[in-house]
Write a structure and sequence with these properties.
three-stranded antiparallel sheet, three-stranded mixed sheet, single chain, mainly alpha, elongated
């Protein structure tokens, strides 16, 4: 209740007492009026005091609450002022710090500017010194800066090529390892689907040994014996887990026969080392050449054919070591000659001439130089070169329809060749193209400088390249392998892939006397 309301109540009480007194005055005695008036005044006074006291207490209470609220607001204001002062102090500190950093940055910029000017000056001085040194070097070395730069660029190019070759080798090895599992599966499936007798006879010879101990002696310390054998014969020698057998792989049967006989002599003699291997291989090559001539002579005598040129006799003997569609070439030639003689006799023609043409019809498969021609035309050229009769030369050249037939002997040779071979038609050129492809591989590798010998092995799946140790280093050998592989890939068509192996070795020979 407010102070004004309390005062109002007191005034109302006093007025009531006054009214009562008036009433009493009008209806009672004077004393009674006075008594009642006093009582009313006293009561009114008491009520007035009480109300005033209550009003004062209420005022004091309200003032106390007001003071407390004012104090709380003052305290909050003071706290806010304190925080503002702290923030102002912090801002002043940051401003001073920023001013210090700005001054430091200005000083650092000035310092850097001075250092840059100093560096520019030193750079100019250094450039002058370099020009002076280059001039002195040119005078001393007798070489201009451009020439020295070209030499440096050439050296860097060589190093880059070496690095690139190493990187290619690593990449290829990684690819081989990654694809090994899938490749094995494909190879196994392919082997299971292909007839192997013909391929084995054409490219593989099995050399039997008494015990597996001989394998270690053939391999030699760190493989030196087997490397010497492969380098001397051009045949890959495969020593695996096959019991009591060593496989000789190569597309040229003469090389395989030389390797087989050389191995036989070495194993029988017991002395197996690189020098002895080269000696035995050279001896066996001479023996094989003599045997080829002897086989040719015996064949011509058996067939009743005389007056052949010695070189043609040698080529006939060389047929013993070649096959035609899985059939021994010499046996095929003898059979064809006999068929030609019989058929010519039945037709009333010269049987001896027919036998002669039949025996010589495939000599184009065994020449020494392997020119870029079909074997029938090569055989015809050989026959003309060694003064054979025109009808014989024509029969040789026309037996695969690569030229026009001019005599009755020619169709007889063609028919008898088909009867003996039993594989006419589309498969006629398979072996020829195969041998041609292997020869092309060897010729491509032989064109590079530093190459001494080239051998196609493993039915054309690998090309061995022997290089001179004094002509190429290891890095150049690696580069040569990649270059040969690239050239074969670009210029030839072949199934599967061809592995290029470049072999470089150094030999030191001395004699104790």
């Amino acid at each position: 209740m407010s102070i004004i309301a309390t005062i109002g109540i007191a005034i109302a009480a006093a007025a009531a007492a006054g009214g009562l007194a008036i009433y009493l005055t009008g209806n009672g005695t004077k004393n009674r009026r006075a008594s009642i008036l006093k009582e009313a005044e006293a009561e009114g006074e008491m009520i007035k005091k009480e109300k005033i006291l209550q009003a004062k207490e209420k005022f004091i209470q309200l003032k106390s609450e007001h003071d407390r609220n004012v104090n709380e607001r003052n305290q909050k204001v003071a706290q806010g002022e304190q925080r503002l002062k702290q923030m102002e102090s912090a801002l002043e500190g940051k401003q001073r710090e920023l001013e210090n950093k700005t001054r430091d940055a200005e000083g650092l910029r000035e310092k850097l500017t001075a250092q840059m000017a100093s560096l520019d000056k030193r750079k100019e001085e250094l450039a002058g010194v370099i020009r002076e040194q280059n001039t002195k070097l040119e005078q001393i070395g007798g070489m201009s800066a451009d020439e020295a730069k070209n030499i440096l660029l050439e050296n860097m190019r060589s190093e880059a090529q070496a690095s690139a070759a190493a990187y290619v080798s690593e990449t290829l090895e990684e690819a081989k390892m990654t694809a090994s599992k899938e490749a094995k599966k494909i190879v196994v499936q392919s082997i299971q689907r292909v007839a192997t007798e013909t391929a084995i006879e054409n490219s593989v010879t099995v050399f039997n040994i008494d015990s597996d101990e001989v394998k270690g002696r053939i391999i030699g310390r760190e493989g030196r014996n087997i490397r010497a054998l492969e380098a001397a014969t051009g045949v890959e020698i495969i020593v695996d887990d096959t019991p009591e057998a060593i496989i000789l792989s190569g597309f040229d049967p003469v090389r395989r026969e030389i390797a087989r006989l050389a191995l036989h002599q070495l194993v029988t003699d017991g002395r197996i080392h690189p020098a002895r291997i080269e000696e035995v291989v050279a001896k066996v090559e001479k023996q094989i050449e003599e045997e080829i001539v002897e086989v040719g002579k015996r064949t011509t005598i058996d067939m009743g054919i005389h007056n052949l040129h010695p070189e043609l006799i040698r080529l006939i003997g060389k047929m013993k070591y070649r096959s035609s569609y899985g059939q021994n070439l010499l046996q095929h030639a003898r059979e064809t000659a006999n068929l030609c003689g019989t058929m010519a006799a039945e037709l009333g023609l010269n049987a001896k001439t027919a036998r002669r043409a039949g025996l010589l019809h495939d000599i184009g498969k065994v020449p020494d130089d392997q020119p870029e021609l079909p074997h029938a035309l090569i055989g015809m050229q050989l026959a003309e070169k060694y003064k054979e009769r025109p009808e014989v030369a024509n029969a040789i050249g026309a037996h695969h329809d690569e030229m026009e037939m001019t005599s009755l002997i020619a169709p007889i040779v063609q028919v008898c060749d088909a009867i003996s071979g039993a594989r006419p038609g589309a498969r006629r050129e398979v072996v020829e193209s195969y041998i041609k492809r292997l020869k092309e591989m060897e010729d491509i590798a032989a064109e590079y400088p530093g190459v001494m010998k080239t051998y196609a092995i493993q039915a054309g799946r690998e090309l061995r390249v022997i290089v001179g140790a004094d002509k190429l280093d290891d890095v150049q050998s690696d580069q040569l392998a990649h270059e040969i592989a690239r050239k074969i890939q670009e210029e030839m068509t072949y199934p599967g892939q061809v592995k290029i192996t470049v072999i470089r070795e150094t030999r030191a020979v001395s004699y104790a006397k």
